């Protein structure tokens, strides 16, 4: 990682203060001087601690090919799907309601079947429609010897999401399963498992799913699945940082299967990848690597932050390069996504940099407006974590 040219802090302050005083656009002023945001710097840049722990994405592993079929529900941009792909599973279908997310899947994996707009609704609440699609068009037999995966939209259970809602609003206090749009999608997923009887299923969600309503609703869902003959492992809260992902990201995983085997979740590692390692390799020329055009008033605040400090006005944090990143966030379901501040340059991360923190391959392109690109990245299961899970599932259930 390097700067394209070198200017001093005093020169930087002159530029920023001039923009503020004369009400000039900072981006235009930098361009006029043949400078970029990556030529700017924070006032304080303590030494970065060297680390020998490698940053890896699924591209660093050989693509396996055992051919166990997988169907994903609530697929998003396909983070979970990518991990299963590299672990050797055969992709049968990705079901997704958002047309932009479907566009992303089709662009990156044209040989996959993305069931969603414009041809289909993508709404799994239309149970009879999707039962017919999966049985007759996709050709799933009953019982299904593959695996169903899914992460029902998590906003009702998310503490971060509810911090955006007014305290007297209907969505405050994690309304969970009472949420009109998202709350009962978990039970739709359960219904499909009941109908098709896959050999295994994997549910991913935010940790709030475990304790909303005192755990009553999740227990009900798991009891329904247990009643169908599934051996359900104890739900696991995993931090992606303990599985080679350069990001602290806690998520809940629930796994069930129709075998007598005992499933053991991958062991976490105490060795973590720092976020700086994800940024070492250049991103010049990659898709989705567009720097936000910050205002001078924002930059003059950002440049004073130390590692790990928050800009209170913009509510963004400067990442510490010696630690895993804070959780990559998606933004609201209908509004803009945003990112953290780069540890070296006083600006927010690009979509591509956020995707690096999520361990997406560099050639995976996100469609749509920038805010929706951030949503896709932030909602995804890190593909590297998904790859490790998928390998454990295959070795313990399917071998």
Question: Can you tell me about this structure?
Answer:
The chain is α/β, with parallel strands linked by helices and 399 residues long. The chain has a domain at 58-271 and 379-398: Rossmann fold, CATH 3.40.50. Helices cover 31% and strands 10% of the residues. The protein contains 13 helices and ten strands. The strands form two sheets. Strands 1, 2, 3, 4, 5, 6, 7 and 8 form an eight-stranded mixed sheet that branches. A two-stranded antiparallel sheet has the order 9-10. Helix 1 runs antiparallel to helix 10. The chain is elongated, with a radius of gyration of 22 Å. 44% of the residues are buried. Residues 158-174 and 179-183 have low confidence and may be disordered.
Element-by-element helix/strand order = HHEHEHEHEHHEHEEEHHEEHHH
Q: Which of globular, elongated, flat, extended, rod-shaped describes the shape?
A: elongated
Number of helices: 13
Poorly predicted ranges: 158-174, 179-183
State which percent range the strand residues make up: 5-15%
What descriptors fit this protein?
399 residues; alpha/beta; Rossmann fold; 8-stranded mixed sheet; two-stranded antiparallel sheet; 13 helices; elongated
């Amino acid at each position: 990682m390097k700067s394209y040219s070198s200017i001093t802090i005093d020169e930087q302050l002159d530029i920023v203060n001039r923009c503020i005083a004369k009400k000039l656009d900072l981006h235009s002023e930098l361009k006029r001087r043949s400078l970029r945001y990556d030529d700017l710097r924070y006032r304080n840049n303590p030494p970065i601690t060297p680390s020998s722990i490698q940053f890896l994405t699924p591209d660093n592993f050989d693509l396996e090919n055992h051919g166990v079929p997988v169907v994903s529900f609530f697929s998003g941009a396909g983070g979970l799907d990518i991990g299963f792909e590299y672990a050797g599973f055969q992709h049968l279908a990705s079901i997704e309601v958002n047309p932009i997310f479907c566009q992303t899947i089709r662009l990156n994996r044209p040989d996959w079947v993305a069931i969603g707009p414009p041809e289909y609704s993508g709404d799994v609440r239309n149970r009879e429609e999707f039962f017919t699609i999966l049985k007759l068009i996709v050709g799933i037999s009953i019982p299904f010897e593959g695996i169903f995966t899914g992460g029902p939209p998590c906003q009702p259970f998310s503490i971060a999401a509810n911090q955006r809602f007014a305290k007297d609003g209907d969505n405050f206090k994690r309304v969970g399963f009472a949420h009109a749009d998202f709350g009962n999608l978990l039970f739709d997923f359960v219904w499909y498992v009941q109908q098709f009887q896959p050999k295994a299923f994997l549910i991913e969600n935010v940790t709030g799913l475990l304790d909303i309503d005192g755990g009553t609703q999740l227990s009900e869902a798991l009891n329904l699945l247990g009643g169908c003959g599934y051996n359900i492992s104890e739900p696991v809260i995993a931090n992606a940082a303990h599985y080679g992902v350069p990001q602290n990201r806690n998520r809940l995983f629930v796994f069930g299967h129709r075998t007598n085997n005992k499933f053991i979740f991958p062991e976490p590692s105490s060795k973590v990848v720092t976020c700086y390692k994800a940024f070492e390799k250049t991103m010049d020329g990659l898709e989705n690597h567009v720097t936000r055009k910050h205002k001078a008033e924002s930059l003059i605040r950002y440049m004073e932050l130390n590692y790990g400090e928050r800009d209170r006005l913009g509510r963004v944090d400067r990442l510490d390069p010696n630690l895993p990143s804070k959780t990559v966030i998606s933004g609201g379901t209908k509004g803009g996504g945003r990112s953290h501040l780069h540890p070296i340059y006083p600006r927010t991360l690009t979509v591509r940099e956020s995707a690096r923190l999520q361990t997406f391959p560099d050639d995976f392109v996100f469609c749509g407006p920038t805010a929706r690109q951030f949503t896709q990245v932030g909602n995804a299961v890190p593909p590297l974590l998904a790859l490790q899970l998928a390998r454990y599932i295959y070795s313990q259930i399917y071998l």
